[in-house]
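Case study 2.
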Amino acid sequence: MSRRTKWIVWSAAAVLLILAGLFVAGFVLSRKFEPFLREQTIVYLKNRFNADVALGGLKVRLPLKSPLDLVFHKGKMIKVRVNGEALDVRLKTMPSAPSILKMRKFRFEVDLDALLQGNALVNHVVLEGFEVNVPPKADRPKVADSLHEPEPEAGSAGQTKMDVLIEEVVASDSTLTILPKDASKAALVFQIHQLRLESAGSGKAMKYQAQLTNATPPGLIHCDGTFGPWVSGSPSDTPLTGKYTFDNANLGVFKGISGTLFSTGAFQGTLDEITVDGETRVPDFRLTMSGNRMPLTTKYHAIVDGTNGNTRLEPVRAQLGATAFTVRGGVVRNAGAKGKTVDLHAMMPQGQLENVLLLAMKGDKPFMKGGIKLDCRVVLPPGQGEIADRLRLKGTFELIDALFTTPDVQEGLDSLSRRAQGQPGNRDIGEIPSQMAGAFEMAAGRIQFSKLGFEIPGAQVDLAGDYIFHTQVLDFHGTAKMQARLSEMMKSRWKRLALKAVDPFFAKDGYGTVAKIKITGTRDKPSFGLDRGRK
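Prediction:
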């Protein structure tokens, strides 16, 4: 073997020995640092959340050249890689509550130089199996107590608390659970697919971007904003702000309605009470019982109770086609109920009747048109059945200058007006608008009118009865009061003469004729007549 070859071999062997030495030294240093980093991680979390902390495992890795950097540069520019698993953080003030933080695995890098000086700068943290459980708000602490954080716990051998700054946290497939005050009720759970937190400095709110799944209606929510600073004494008081977008949500999961929802908005508050201002747009909203598509838009102001998911709407300003209306109320979980109940007060001061009927009834042509005023309570209890069968309405309404679009029905009213005015043959009297008002109650696919009155020139009609949506059957009975006497309503001369003798029997309360009437049949083929079966 030549001298040159020997020199190359011995040089390679020396390099290998140096590398092996560095590896061994790095391994030894890593094991030396593991107890220290484990302790500092636990102490930081204990102080940060005022909690008991359990850590399953923690391993430290140093770069291969770290022993040399430690000797010649005193640890500067050395990145320590840390991997941990089975982390569990439980609040000391709520030992019986679920753990506030849980992580299946986590990893991060920290500057060794800053770590040795007691100022840990963590550039990037990656979390796997991240769970956050926000407990309900307990009795609020006294004002004096709420102004002070718990005393920081020191490490072993008199070590002081280490200052930690985390610059970025990234988590995937995480879960945020907001626990209810009543343990018998279901928690509010959010599945967060992607989460990124960015620090703005110690004691300041963190910026975040998140993508999460909305369970019902299903769809992805994208949001960004600020979170914190964390209130360790009362986590549910931690501030939260943000903006969100919610696209392509399928309303068909709710039995009885359909359409695609788009929504944007902004929110602020704390984890246990959030105020939301937003807009929604459903270009193809429809009820399955009618199938007619209508554009529906809303602007809303809502207050969400994060501990139970109850929502107060104060108010919602909506637009259905060309009809505007306002809704106030809430979506709440009542005692003993398995789901939430929608309980709203709706007011429609000046709507278009055809918009309302087109949404609610079959066919592409509403049977009436005109103006409508509406004031009613809307209640939708929880359940699995069709919305039309569960929906309950109770209130009052008024129709202004309403006309029937079905020729037979409108002709019947025109004929009634001509006769009521004593001009049965005057064809110039036509297209008579109706003024209608009443009180109604709707449930189980049936609308019942306890009072239904309408006026046309020459006549006033007061009715009561009901209408069944599925079969479109009418059943109304009441009283008709007309200006003309009974004989004056007849076209033929001999009938006029024959009925003059009985006119006094039908005249009453200043009206020429008062009679009991009924309206039966179906919506498309109604039947008007005297109600001879009633006194």
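DSSP finds nine helices and 26 strands in the chain.
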